[in-house]
Every structure is written in structure tokens, then in C-alpha cells.
Design goal:
It is built from eleven helices and eight strands. It has 278 residues and is α/β, with parallel strands linked by helices. It has two domains: 5-176, NAD(P)-binding Rossmann-like Domain (Rossmann fold, 3-Layer(aba) Sandwich), CATH 3.40.50.720; 184-268, N-(1-d-carboxylethyl)-l-norvaline Dehydrogenase, domain 2, CATH 1.10.1040.10. Strands 3-2-1-4-5-6-7-8 form an eight-stranded mixed beta sheet, with helices on both faces. The protein binds acetoacetyl-coenzyme A. Acetoacetyl-coenzyme A is lined by residues 49, 52-53, 56, 113, 136-138, 140-142, 183-184, 219-220, 225, 229.
Length: 278
């Protein structure tokens, strides 16, 4: 299946990273974000990342960025990769509109970390062409793409996305559409348990993270990683797991909720488990 022209919706941390790796593979990218200034900000972040990669022999940033065209609205493409805010209603609206505006043979993919692919597919008239294509932050560096099949996703659609992921230099891993898929079903309870360990006074944040970094060879400890992802996002994903799987063990840790209530969302707000103000 030819996937040469790719519409990326959302130019934030994830959408910008996705646009970058797709453009770096030689494809044409149409980049849309409804928020004023978001595409420009995304392009600046891409330029900085591409400059780092160019120092290590990667492509000239200008040669990659010339393939990224900002667009004011959703536009015709072979594939849409949606990476807007993690809100089911907002994503459903994007999928409804994409179904109207993109050619009937186009594939509609979501970078969601937790919203059911099956429910996004259900608002379109092409559920067999709707699929999850879940990248990991920072997208230009991390090699995993989790490919999620909704209930109606066709073999042909899943195979096309697996092939595309490989062509982007990534390693695809397939999962079915159950809450949190595989990645967040494993990651979020790990983070949640680390928050419980802190809340119960088992150890200080630095000790918890040192244990994961040096004991399990993780690049970041769970609390520092939660700060990177955003504590509000962690709580939202735990709620998806809790609702969808119905077991008490998935309830968000009260300390995580309390930090979110206080506006301590992690790096993006300057403070989470750690202080980033300096
Ligand atoms: N673009 C290009 N290069 C980048 C980059 C970017 N955005 N970010 C980092 N790099 C490069 C750096 O330039 C550096 O290159 P050199 O080794 O050649 O100097 C290299 O990557 C390592 O970076 P740093 O030295 O700055 O720091 P580090 O060794 O700690 O690595 C990291 C940074 C790759 C982010 C590493 O900390 C890491 O892997 N962290 C874990 C991230 C993670 O778990 N992400 C998953 C989050 S979950 C998710 O995304 C999905 C979800 O559903 C919630």
C-alpha cells in the first residue's frame, strides 16, 4: 500500500516528532494543528532535534524540513497520523472529519496511548482502515512503534503500518485493543506503584529512581519518567485501565491525584516529583 503523503494532526511533542521521522524517511508531510503558533513551535523543535542528529551523520535539517508543509485544515493524504490531546471527544472529532475529507482508501491512524482504537474507528465509515500507531517520546530517538488493531482493523491495514514503521527505522510490535494496550498496561502500574512507595514513606524520590536506573538499567526512574510524560496524563491513563479492566489494583495513587490537583504536572509545569524551575 502506498503511504507517501502523510497528514500529521497535532504538532506538539509527539506530533512534531512523528512529522520529523516521517519527513526524514523521504515522505511528504502535511502538518496541521488547530492551536495558533503550534506548527511554528513544532517546526523549531524539529529543527533542533534534526541539528543534533545531523551532528551524528543524519540528514541536513533543511532537506528534511522542506518536505513538511504546514496546512490550515485536514487535507487529502494516503495516511493520517493523529497526535492531538489525549481526549476521546477531541480525537473522535478529528476522526469524523478525517473520514469526510480524506480519500476512502486512506488509512486513519492514532498515536493515542490509551483511547480505544475501536471507538475511534466507530465514528468513521471505514473501521477496517483505522489503526493505532503509538510512538514513544522522544520520537526521533526511541525505536518502538506499538501497532494496535481495533476490533475491525484489517490485516492489510495493520501490515501497511508495520511496513511503514520499519521504513521509518522503527521496530513495530503488534497489540490488540485492550485498555492501555501493552505499553501502558505495563508502564503505568510501575509508575503508580513508585508513587505509592513515595506516599507510604518507603523511600525518597531519588532513591526510588536510583533503584530503577541502576538495578533494572532503566534510562530514567519511574518518578522522573512520570514527570516527563506528565502526571495528569499518568492519572488519565490509570483511569482508563481502572475503568476498562475493573480491578482495584489499577486505581490511580492518591498522591499522583494530589500532585495533579496542586498543578504539579511534571516538567511541563516546572514541578512534579522533582523541581525543574531552575
Ligand atoms: N532528538 C534527537 N536526539 C535526541 C533527542 C531528540 N529529541 N533527545 C535526546 N537525543 C539524543 C541526545 O543528543 C544524545 O545523543 P548522544 O548520545 O549522541 O550525545 C542521546 O539522545 C542521549 O540523550 P541525553 O544524553 O540528553 O540523555 P539520556 O542519555 O538520558 O537520553 C533519553 C535521553 C533518550 C530521552 C533517555 O533518557 C530515555 O530513553 N528516557 C526514557 C524515555 C522513555 O521511557 N520514554 C517513553 C515514555 S512513554 C511514552 O512516550 C508513551 C506513552 O504512552 C506514555
Amino acid at each position: 500500500m502506498k503511504l507517501e503523503r502523510v497528514l500529521v494532526v497535532g504538532a506538539g511533542q509527539m506530533g512534531g516528532g512523528i512529522a520529523q521521522v516521517v519527513a526524514a524517511s523521504g515522505r511528504r508531510v502535511l502538518l496541521h494543528d488547530a492551536a495558533p503558533g503550534a506548527v511554528e513551535h513544532g517546526l523549531e523543535t524539529m529543527r533542533r532535534s534534526l541539528a543534533k542528529l545531523a551532528e551524528k551523520g543524519g540528514a541536513d535539517p533543511d532537506e528534511v524540513l522542506v518536505r513538511v508543509e504546514p496546512v490550515d485544515d485536514l487535507a487529502a493524504a494516503d495516511l493520517m497520523i493523529e497526535a492531538v490531546v489525549e481526549d476521546a471527544a477531541v480525537k473522535e472529532d478529528v476522526f469524523r472529519r478525517a473520514d469526510e475529507l480524506l480519500p476512502p482508501e486512506a488509512i486513519l491512524a492514532s498515536n493515542t496511548s490509551s483511547i480505544p482504537i475501536t471507538s475511534l474507528a466507530a465514528v468513521t465509515g471505514r473501521p477496517e482502515r483505522v489503526v493505532g500507531m503509538h510512538f514513544f517520546n522522544p520520537v526521533p530517538v526511541l525505536r518502538l512503534v506499538e501497532v494496535i488493531r481495533g476490533l475491525e482493523t484489517s490485516d492489510e491495514t495493520a501490515a501497511a503500518i508495520v511496513e511503514l514503521a520499519r521504513d521509518l527505522g522503527k521496530e513495530p510490535a503488534e497489540a490488540r485493543d485492550f485498555p492501555g494496550f501493552v505499553s501502558n498496561r505495563i508502564l503505568m502500574p510501575f509508575i503508580n506503584e513508585a508513587a505509592y512507595a513515595l506516599m507510604e514513606g518507603v523511600a525518597e524520590p531519588e532513591a526510588i529512581d536510583t533503584i530503577a536506573k541502576l538495578g533494572f538499567a532503566h534510562p530514567l526512574g519511574p518518578l522522573a519518567l512520570a514527570d516527563l510524560i506528565g502526571l495528569d496524563t499518568c492519572v488519565a491513563i490509570m483511569e482508563v485501565l481502572h475503568r476498562g479492566l475493573g480491578q482495584a489494583k489499577y486505581a490511580p495513587c492518591p498522591l499522583l491525584r494530589q500532585y495533579v490537583q496542586a498543578g504539579r504536572l511534571g516538567r511541563k509545569s516546572g514541578r512534579g516529583f522533582y523541581d525543574y524551575s531552575s
